[in-house]
Amino acid sequence: MSAADNISTILSSGIRLTVPLAFAACGEYLAERAGTMNISLEAMMLGAAFGSVATASATGSATAGLVAGVLIGLLIGLVHGNLAHRLEVNTFVVGLVLNALVLGLTSYLITISSFDSHQVSQVSVPWLRDIPLIGHPLFVERWPVYLLLLVVPLTWWLVERSRWGLELRAVGEQPQAADVTGIRVNLRRRQALLWCGALAGLGGAYLAVGEVGSFNQNMTAGRGYIVIAAVIFGAWRLGRTLLGCVLFGLADAMRLALPALGLTMNSQLLVVAPYLLALVAMLVFTTRNREPKSLGQPFVRGST
After folding, report:
1. In the chain, domain spans
2. pLDDT by residue for the chain (304 residues), tens digit each?
3. Residue 123: strand pairing partners
4. Could you give the CA distance from residue 190 to residue 187 in angstroms, rounded to a whole number?
5. pTM for this predicted structure
6. What is the DSSP code (8-state) at residue 216?
7. Is domain 3-120+145-290 given the CATH code 2.30.30 in the classification?
């Protein structure tokens, strides 16, 4: 293979690995702007991956599997929101418990289940696919990839231009002041968690029925935590957050591609590279103090 072919192959792999991160990142970005640190992102993605494969196998439709993944993400977001905001359980504890619960449940269910393989169809864009180097990576993809062209600007508009987004940002920065003006702080935060759940579910479902066509134990392998690192890396700005997802996706693609290209490196180092990049990003960018002022802080009416 020529150098151009090698680069195109790495780009193709990088884009496929970036897509589930990008879907989940749009949701996590919105949730964190509302002041909610959604640790249960991993549970949303993993549960959606399992549910999408099970639904696709039962119905014979990968598209139905995608829809099921979104619904499972919504369900986990609903559970998290009600436990953290109605029952006032610590949101970090809720997230960690949900992650452990979904990991254990899916690990058990996959051992007693057998699913048929289904994948969503691939779209090839005429003429554009023939562009050298980037044509095949960008314009020969599974059709859910192109939903990002809708999801990304919609998420930005919701946060930055809509009245709902203005209220969302207010509860993330100054929840007490927002409450005084009549904004229902915890309701807005629960709504943000639902948006996050839907998109994280779509990301997990895409990973399962978009790229792999099956489910493996612990399939997401910490991608939810990488997405949280990407939001921090992006300093709570959507464009920078997505850039972080691209960097993590390309790092993972290099891990897979280098041995195939005949380049020998320590295998453990290659496996840990994307997670090491995420850790470095968190250490560097959390010092900039750009996070929403009430991020991760519970809201109790009348507190100071």
Report:
1. 3-120+145-290
2. 566 667 778 888 889 999 999 999 999 999 999 999 899 999 999 999 999 999 999 999 999 999 999 999 999 999 999 999 999 899 999 999 999 999 999 999 999 989 999 999 998 888 888 788 788 888 889 999 999 999 999 999 999 999 999 999 999 999 999 999 999 999 999 999 999 999 999 999 999 999 899 999 999 988 999 999 889 888 899 998 998 899 888 888 877 777 666 666 665 666 677 677 767 766 666 655 578 888 888 887 754 3
3. 141
4. 5
5. 0.92
6. -
7. no
Structure token pair of residue 51: 């549910």
Assign 3 to helix, strand or coil: helix
Nearest of 206, 176, 184 to residue 303 by alpha carbon: 176
Give the span between the Cα atoms of 225 and 35, in whole angstroms: 17
End-to-end CA distance of the chain: 64
Where are the strands (E) in 23-134, listed by range? 122-124
Q: What is the 3-state secondary structure (H, E, C) of 229-298?
A: HHHHHCCCCHHHHHHHHHHHHHHHHHHHHHHHCCCCCCHHHHHHHHHHHHHHHHHHHHHHCCCCCCCCCC
Up-side HSE of residue 15: CA atoms within 13 Å toward CB?
18
For residues 236 and 230, what is the distance between their CA atoms, to the nearest angstrom? 9
